[in-house]
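We store chain and fold; example below:
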Amino acid sequence: MTDNLKWSKSSYSGAQGGNCVEVADDDSRVLVRDTKDRTGAMIQFSPDAWRTFAEQVKRSLALDPSQGPVNACRGLSHF
C-alpha cells in the first residue's frame, strides 16, 4: 500500500508543484508519481535502476542546464 509512504518532491518545483514528480522509497522499489495527479498511475523502479536514471539526468543537465522542465526536478536523486 502506498498510503503510508513518505513522498518527496524537488525543492525546485515551487509551491504549486510545477511540472514535477514525487518519489517514495518503498524498501525494494522506488515509486514515482505525478505531483499534479497523486492518485493516478505510478511508475516503479528498482533502487539500482532509479540511481542509474537519476545519474543520467544529472549528467545531461551538467552538459546542458537549459533543458527546460527536466531541470526543474533535478533534486530527486537522493534515493
Residues 47-63 form the longest helix (17 residues). The radius of gyration is 12 Å. The mean pLDDT is 77.
